[in-house]
UniProtKB/TrEMBL annotation:
Metal-binding recorded as keyword: yes
TM segment ranges: none
Keywords: Hydrolase, Metal-binding, Zinc
Cofactor(s) the protein requires to work: Zn(2+)
Any one GO molecular function term: hydrolase activity, acting on carbon-nitrogen (but not peptide) bonds, in linear amides
A Pfam family it matches: Creatininase
InterPro entries linked to this entry: Creatininase, Creatininase-like_sf, Creatininase/forma_Hydrolase
Protein name: Creatininase
Record NCBIfam families: creatininase
Biological source species: Aureimonas frigidaquae
GO biological process: creatine biosynthetic process; creatinine catabolic process; riboflavin biosynthetic process
């Protein structure tokens, strides 16, 4: 499906980008975080994974990947271990919403009409929704009524079949998968150079109360920052995730925009 055209917006010249505009390209914006991912994965994990997947999807659909937003909303104990770990650098919600809204509006100013907000960090999700909602409103007020924005978390495309490969004993929950089997496996496949394989943690899943205390109660948070065991992660599992998720996301985007 690839037309051989460049995929990374940041690698194009302005003229090359301008030449792509008449084809009404789909622009994918990876949105991640700079967040602790245990003793074995880099702080950029949530930015690396959506970017790598978005690049592969874009190749299939003739899309363009905008520069990744490498900071996200504050890490939460139940989904990311919490914002207190050294090296976790987060944005206030209002900052994140304003950043994404500006980027969407500027893409639209250049004539982009199909945008995919490609999330890699669970905590971002409702702020992505808000940015998309405000940008659509901004565009309508400008008289631009043909902008479509899709929001997705790539992990939500993992099929039941792939889930069985990843978790033969059953998935505990996607929230507790932080820095665990899925992310570690995909990193082992894509960026083994960045995985400290001798430091992959094992242990029981974190057990949290049903409420969320502020300030955080650090007691239920595993000291290493991983919310369930990553011991069964393998590069083969990571390869299986990409082999299923990339074509499925590409097909879903094409189907939606063709309809
Ligand atoms: Zn993550």
């Amino acid at each position: 499906m690839s037309d051989g055209a460049a995929v990374r917006l940041a690698d194009m010249t302005w003229m090359e980008f301008a030449e792509r505009l008449p084809s009404n390209p789909i622009v994918l914006l990876p949105i991640g975080s700079t967040e602790q991912h245990g003793p074995h994965l880099p702080l950029a994990t949530d930015a690396i994974l959506p970017e790598e997947i978005a690049l592969r999807v874009a190749e299939r659909i003739g899309g363009i990947v905008a520069p990744t937003l490498s900071y996200g909303y504050k890490s939460q104990p139940k989904t990311g271990g919490g914002n207190h770990f050294p090296g976790t650098i987060s944005l206030d919600a209002s900052t994140l919403i304003a950043l994404m809204r500006d980027i969407i509006n500027d893409l639209c100013r250049h004539g982009i009409r199909r945008i995919v907000l490609f999330d890699g960090h669970m905590e971002n999700q409702w702020f992505i929704t808000e940015a998309a909602d405000l940008a659509i409103r901004d565009q309508r007020r400008e008289g631009v009524n043909d902008v479509t924005i899709l929001k997705l978390g790539y992990w939500e495309f993992i099929s039941a079949q792939t889930e069985e490969i990843l978790f033969p004993d059953g998935l505990i929950s996607w929230a507790l998968e932080h820095a665990a089997v899925m992310e570690t496996s995909v990193m082992l496949h894509l960026r083994p150079d960045l995985v400290r394989a001798d430091r992959i943690p094992d242990g029981p899943p974190a057990a949290f109360p049903l409420f969320d205390p502020y300030p955080f109660d650090l007691r239920p948070i595993p000291a290493h920052g991983v919310l369930s065991s990553a011991a069964s992660a393998t590069a083969e599992k990571g390869r299986a995730v990409l082999a299923q998720v990339v074509p499925d996301i590409a097909r879903a985007l094409q189907d939606h925009f063709a309809a």
